[in-house]
Amino acid sequence: QNVLQMNAIHSNYSDPNNLKFEEIKIFGLFPEITAVSVSQNNVELDYPLNVTYDRLREVAYIRGLQLELGKSYTVKWSQSRNIHERFNCYPGPDPTREKCEKLGCAWEVTVYPDVPPCYYNSSNPYSIGNVNYSSAGIVATLSLDKAKVRANEAATAPISTLGLEVKYHLNNMLQFKIYDYQTPRYEVPVPLNLPSSPTSTSQDRLYEVTLQLKPFGIQIRRKSTGKVIWDSALPTFTFSDMFIQISTRLASQYIYGFGETEHTTFRHDMNWHTWGMFTRDQPPTYKLNSYGYQPFYMALEEDGNAHGVLLLNSNAMDVTFQPTPALTYRTTGGILDFYMFLGPTPELVVQEYTALVGRPVMPAYWSLGFQLCRYGYGNDSEIAQLVEEMKAARIPYDVQYTDIDYMERQVDFTLDTRFAGLPALINKIKGEGMRFIIILDPAISGNETNYPAFTRGVENDVFIKRPDTNEIIYSKVWSFLPNVQVNESLPHETQVELYAAHAAFPDFFRNSTVEWWKKEILEVYNNPINASRSLKFDGLWIDMNEPAAFVNGAVDGCRNDLLNHPPYMPHLGYRSEGLSYKSPCMEGQQYLADGTPVRHYDVHNLYGWSQTKPTLDALQSVTKERGIVVTRSTYPSSGRWAGHWLGDNKATWDQLPKSVIGMLEFSLFGISYTGADICGFFQDSEYELCLRWMQLGAFYPYSRNHNQKGTRVSWN
C-alpha cells in the first residue's frame, strides 16, 4: 500500500534523448500525502520533490522526479493521519468498534476524548450527472453508487436519486438545494423575500460555484480573493428519509451564530463541539438546546471578509465543529436548502440576511424604556403599590407587566378575582404616561365547564390532533383544574400531577386558528360582557410557545415510537428521552394555511414562529398602535414581528457576559429587540449583582427586570 514499484523488464535500451518521468499524479487519494521517498536498488535517492494536494478533487501531485527510462525505481509515500481530518461516522450514543465497522468505517481510539474513534475512510457514495448550466444557476441530479452504500436501517437508507439546484439569486446571495425530486418531502413553509427570477450577472457576482462530479461536492469561492468559503466534497454526505448529513470545510476558525443555546463565547470553539437545535422549555444552560431554533452562522475569513450561511430546515438538528476547520450538519428530515450571503462586511451580511428573512420589527418608542415584571404578584394592589414606590424612589420606568398570576388558575383570557382592580389600574398608569403588557400562553385548558376560548376552539377545529382522527392531543402546562385547592408547598412536578388541567395546543398555521386567536385577544381588550373588565394592554408577551409541556408527549402517551425516538437522535439535552421530552407528541397532525397536512415532527420548531405574526396582527388590530410583541420561541424571520428575551436565567455573575453574547447572536439572527432578565429570574440576587446588572441592563435594547416567584430582588 502507498507504493509505486516501477520495474524495467528490458533494461538494455539507451535513450538518446535522456527522457525522464518528472511528475506522478495519484487520483482518489485521501487524506493528503505527508512524505515521499524515491529509491533505486534499495538506495534512497536524494533530490528535491514538490508535493501538492488538491483537497476538492482528492488528487496528489508529486513533481521534481528524475526517473530515467530503462531503470527501476520504487516510489513510496505516507499519508496524513491528522485526527483533525476525521469526520465522525457514528455520531449516535455509545460508539463501539462493532457498530463502527458495520458501517464500513475505521475505528481507532485516541488519547483525545473528543476526537471521534469511528471515522470515514472512504468517499461519499453520490456522484453528479445530467448537469445543466445556465446564466441563472445549475441543475443536476445526484446518483447513489449502491456498491458503496454503508449499512443502514430502513429510515436511514440513502435515497438513490436526488435533485440539485443552484440559483444565482443576487450578486451577493445564492441558494443551493438538495432534495428528492421523485417523492415530495416536507419543506419549510416560511416565506422568504426572493426575486421572482435571478438578477445577478456573471461579471458582477461575488462568488463562483464549481461541482465535483464524483464523489459529489459543491465548492463556492469568493471571486475577489479566490478563497473557498464552502467545500462539501467530503465523505459524510448522505440523504435519507430520517437522517440527512452534509459537511463543509470552513474558510477560517472564526464562526459565530447558531442557536438557541447558551454559549460561553461569541466566537465558537472549533475543538469538537456539537450543538443541538430543537425548541424546548429549557432555561439557558451550557450545551442544552433551548427556546429557539436558529440555523444561521456568520464566518469571518482570514482576510477580514465575511459571509453568512442559512440552512432552511426545521427538523431536529445538530451541528458539529471540528478543528479542520469544518462543520457538519445532521438533521432528521426535510431537505437541504442553503442560502449564502457574501457580504463582504459583517454589517452587509446581516443586511443581506434580513433582506431575505425580513427586517427586524420597529418597536414602539415607549418599549425602549425600562420595564418591570415579576412572576408571583399576589394581587393588583401589590402592583399598584409597586408603581407608587417606583415613582417615590424616582426610578424612571415606562412599562409594567403581569405574569400568569392575573389569570384565573393560569387560564388564558380570564381575570382572577384577586386582580379585579387591574383594568382600572392599567387605565390609571396609562393616564400617567406609562404602558402595560400582559402575558399569554398558547396552551388552552380543556377541563372547563364554561370557557368560550376552548369551546370556540373546538368549534373552529383549531387544536392539534392525532393523525387521521378527531382526537385532540392533551398535555399539561400551567392551567390548573377548577374547584381544587392547590398546595403550593408541593414540588412543581407533584402539583402538575395533582392539579394541572388537560391542555390543548392551537395549530397557528391554520387560518381558522389565526382568526380564533384574534377574537380571543379582542375580547380581553374589549370585554363584550362587562366593559369594566377590559384590559387595555399596549403589548403582548407570548411565553411557553416552543411549545412547552409539563408531561412528556401527552397525558395518555404518544403512539408513534419512530417519530418520537427517531433512528438518529441529535445531540439534545436529555437525549435518551426522545423528542417528546417536555414537548407534545411528534405524530400530532397540523395543517398549513393551504390545507396541506404536516407532522408536528417536522414543524415543532416553527410553533413559536407561527404564533408570532397572528399575535402582532391581533395587538395592532385592537390597540390601533404599533405596540410590541415579545416571544420566547423563535425561528428565522421571527424578528419581523417580535422581540425576544433570553429566557429564565439565574441570578449569577456569569449571566452578565452571557447575556451580551446572546444579544449579539440574536442581532445576527435579525432579532435586534432582545434582552435578558435583569437581576436574574431564578435564585435570590445579591445586592451588588443586581446593581451592576441594572447598569448593564440600561443598555439592553429590551430592558426588563423580571424574576421568579419568591426570589429577592429589592433592598432598602
UniProtKB/TrEMBL annotation:
Domain P-type: 78-122
GO cellular component: membrane
Pfam family, one: Trefoil
InterPro entries: Gal_mutarotase_sf_dom (IPR011013), GH (IPR017853), Glyco_hydro_31_AS (IPR030458), Glyco_hydro_31_CS (IPR030459), Glyco_hydro_31_N_dom (IPR025887), Glyco_hydro_31_TIM (IPR000322), Glyco_hydro_b (IPR013780), P_trefoil_dom (IPR000519)
Catalyzed reactions per annotation: Hydrolysis of terminal, non-reducing (1->4)-linked alpha-D-glucose residues with release of alpha-D-glucose
Catalytic activity, EC: 3.2.1.20
A Gene Ontology BP annotation from the UniProt entry: carbohydrate metabolic process
Domain of life: Eukaryota
Family: Belongs to the glycosyl hydrolase 31 family.
Full protein name: alpha-glucosidase
Taxonomic lineage from the root: Eukaryota, Metazoa, Chordata, Craniata, Vertebrata
Gene name per UniProt: Mgam_0
